[in-house]
Amino acid sequence: MQSNNPLSSIPVSPLQSLLTAHGGDPHALVQILRQLQASQGWLPHDSLSQIAQALGLTLAHVQGVAGFYRFFHTQPVGRYRVLFSDNITDRMGGSEALMLQLCRLLKVEPGQMRADGRVSVATSSCTGLCDQGPALLINHHQVVTRLTPARIVHIAALIEQNTPPEQWPAEWSRVDDQIRLADVKLGAQPAPGQGIAAALARGPQGMLDDLKRSKLRGRGGAGYATGTKWQLCRAAPGQMHYVVCNADEGEPGTFKDRVLLTSYADTVFEGMTIAALVIGARRGLVYLRGEYRFLLEPLQAVLQRRREQGLLGASIQGQSGFDFDIEIHVGAGAYVCGEESALIESLEGKRGVPRIRPPFPVERGYLGQPTTVNNVETFCAVTHIAVHGGAWWSAIGTPQSTGTKIHSVSGDCERPGLYEYPFGTRIGRILEDCGARDTQAVQVGGPSGVCLSVSEFNRRIAFEDVPTAGAFMVFDRSRDMFEVARNFAQFFAHESCGFCTPCRVGTELVVRRLDKLKKGYGSSEDVQVLYELDKLMHNATHCGLGAAACNPLRDTIAKFRPAYERHLTSLHFVPGFDLDAELSQARLATGRDDTGAHLENL
Questions:
Q1: Most buried of the four, 279, 485, 516, 539, by CB within 10 Å?
Q2: DSSP state, 217?
């Protein structure tokens, strides 16, 4: 039966135009779905069917991709899709109360579309605006920062008046860099082309040798030696080599890459171009997280300017045979795509499920070809190393952790923002500089990182001591560390890709145990079960997400035990809260029934 809903399908000609723009390439599926949804608000079944037929894909594949990413909707969500950032720092700023206020004003239930189809209000994981939150996204492409009750009233009025978000006050969407302390990467930048010229003067092998001399390690968290990665990729056989910039900055509390892409894009793109020279690549891709969609047009403008300056395209800086260009792929809301193989799957138009390794991306990455995947901050560092030399870089920081690290500081401090320090800097120094007072804990590296107590503030940021992907969240003594851990547990359960049972069901069980404690139904046995879940997930999950999911739980139980004990009861059995029912509900919540023998034993 034909639908009477005017949004139930898109005319063939606009869809054909979109498919033609992407050359009918099935690897562009995520981008096609993203742009289609932007034009009509959601992804109806008949549109998915047309896309599958046009791209030579099965409908099941297209539906699977559409159902995987948080920002894709296969049911109507309203002309105004309002998503409040649900990071712990946004909650500390009152985001939960602000969301409920907006729902009351608009007469809509959280997570539901209003009956007239105008609006829906829900939450999203961290939007990378922790230093100027609480924040929200409108229709996945427009941000509103520094939310207040008065601003919420105004937003509700504009939605009721059907005012397009593009006509809302521009001040609401102001996103500041908030650079508080600059060193190498946030200080004076090389002129466009200066790093490329220096790399060309050395030659590909000379540049690689100098990069290895610098001992630069990846700034995305894993800390793998950049020179070694590039050497492996350069030596790997393949018809094409690729350079990929991982700008899927999804770790809650991290926003350094947002600033680098906003104000230092030339330096980042220059680093990618130097990588292309070294490994012999002709094509580069930036995987931009969906929450940073508002950066797309400015970044494309920088790329176009660099093409006009002879810094991208054919014969870069007049060097015959040095041909390289960059395109931008926008994600659709999946934290797991920060893992490099999941990111590559998404670039290929698939669900972002991490691959089994080996082979590693440097051997078989994008389209099965040798690919180097590096973080935004890493490429920025490469440009500075090209200009100043590997020996200069290796003299900064510590022998095992050379150079500087940018920290995204947020939470209970007077001056949130970006702070850049040489590796080896004390945790206490950062707290002093940002104006933190009466601090009880610092979460370094985001939820998958480490939680430090006061006795550890003399430890230092370094791969050999406290490694970090960049997040630095501060909690004073007014905060309940149990609630902090509970928020992080909810994040991991929300962001699990669902591929493997230990992570899919385990993260849900962790949330249910913490919710049980929150309601006052818990006992010391529940804490023991949480320990057992941690051990199981750490050793049995498919990728690092599940392995790290209990990190904040483990740290907070060990270092802030009284926060948990306040929620304990001496009872070992509470009527109406039995594990069999809990496990059954976890199966239903995750949409699967294969919970696994190990989880059954819990």
A1: 485
A2: B
**74 assigned to some structural domain:** no
| Confidence (pTM) | 0.91
Half-sphere exposure of 213 (CA within 13 A, CB side): 15
CA-nearest of 84, 125, 376 to 250 is 125
Say whether both 99 and 163 belong to one domain: yes
Instruction: Kindly indicate the confidence band of residue 597, based on its pLDDT and cuts at 50, 70 and 90.
Output: very low
Percent of the chain with pLDDT over 90: 78
Question: Between the CA of residue 71 and those of 75, 276, 324, 354, what are the distances in Å?
Answer: 12, 32, 31, 19
Helix 481-495 crosses helix 551-559 at what angle (to 10 degrees)? Answer: 170
Q: What are residue 405's DSSP bridge partners?
A: 421
Handedness of CA 202, 205, 207, 211 (dihedral sign): negative
Structural domain ending residue among the three candidates 20, 46, 68? 68
Rounded to an integer, the average pLDDT of 579-591 is 51
SS (H, E, C) 400-457: CCECEEEEEEEECECCCEEEEEECCCEHHHHHHHHCECCEEEEEECCCCCEEEEHHHC
What is the tens place of the pLDDT at every residue in 427-449?
Answer: 999 999 999 999 999 999 999 89
Q: Which two tokens stand for residue 475?
A: 């909690």
What is the 3-state composition of the chain as percent helix, strand, coil, each rounded to the nearest 5? 50, 15, 35
Residue 486: C-alpha distances to residues 96, 288, 427, 520, 553 (Å): 15, 28, 24, 14, 8
**Domain check: are 109 and 189 in the same one?**
no
CATH of the domain at 64: 1.10.10
Asked whether the beta carbons of 151 and 380 are under 8 A apart, the reply is no
Domain check: are 594 and 518 in the same one? Answer: yes
Total domains in the chain come to: 5
Same domain for 247 and 350: yes
Helix (H, G, I), strand (E, B) or coil at 594: coil
> Is there a contact between 284 and 299 (Cβ–Cβ < 8 Å)?
no
Residue 570 has a pLDDT of 43
Start-to-end CA span in the chain (Å): 48
556: left (phi over 0), alpha (psi -120 to 50) or beta: alpha
Find, among 279, 209, 218, 580, the residue nearest to 401 by Cα: 218
**What long-range pairs does 293-302 form, CB within 8 A, spacing at least 24?**
293/140, 293/141, 293/330, 294/141, 294/142, 294/143, 294/173, 294/175, 295/258, 295/261, 295/262, 296/328, 296/330, 298/262, 298/265, 299/261, 299/265, 299/328, 300/328, 302/265, 302/266, 302/269
Nearest to 387 by CA among 187, 233, 228, 177: 187
**By the 8 A CB rule, do 251 and 378 touch?**
no
Rounded to 10 degrees, what is the CA torsion of 69, 417, 245, 67? 0
Q: pLDDT tens, 328-349?
A: 999 999 999 999 999 999 999 9
Bridge partner residues of 80 (DSSP): 119
Q: Domain range spanning residue 507?
A: 481-600
Radius of gyration of the chain (CA): 24
| Strand-pair partners of 242 | 283, 371
Length of the chain: 602
- Structural domain includes residue 433: no
Instruction: With respect to residue 98, please indicate whether it lies within any of the assigned structural domains.
Output: yes
The C-alpha atoms of residue 233 and residue 566 are separated, in whole angstroms, by: 53
Q: What are the tokens at 522?
A: 């818990």
